[in-house]
Amino acid sequence: MYMVVVDNDKCTGCEECVNVCPNECFQMKDDKSDPYQGAECVFCESCLGVCPGDAITITEM
To answer: Of 9, 19, 33, 42, which residue is most buried, by most CB within 10 angstroms?
Structure first.
């Protein structure tokens, strides 16, 4: 199981993580990415590769 965290100060609101995540872990909330279903993360790292602000951190729980 993984924990997905988005640093709102670094998030640019580009929605790339929302678009690329195969498990739909992200949604947009207040123009920022919200990992509302972070428990669905399979650590494919797709979001990490597309995030221009380096705002996403994934850690194993």
So the answer is: 33
Q: % helix / strand / coil in the chain, to the nearest 5? A: 20, 25, 50
pLDDT tens, residue by residue, 7-56? 999 999 999 999 999 999 999 999 999 999 999 999 999 999 999 999 99
Q: What's the total number of domains in the chain?
A: 1
pTM listed for this prediction? 0.93
Amino acid at 13: G
Going through 1-61 in order, the beta strands assigned E by DSSP cover 2-6, 27-29, 32-34, 56-60
Structural domain span for residue 37: 2-60
Contact 50, 28 (CB under 8 A): no
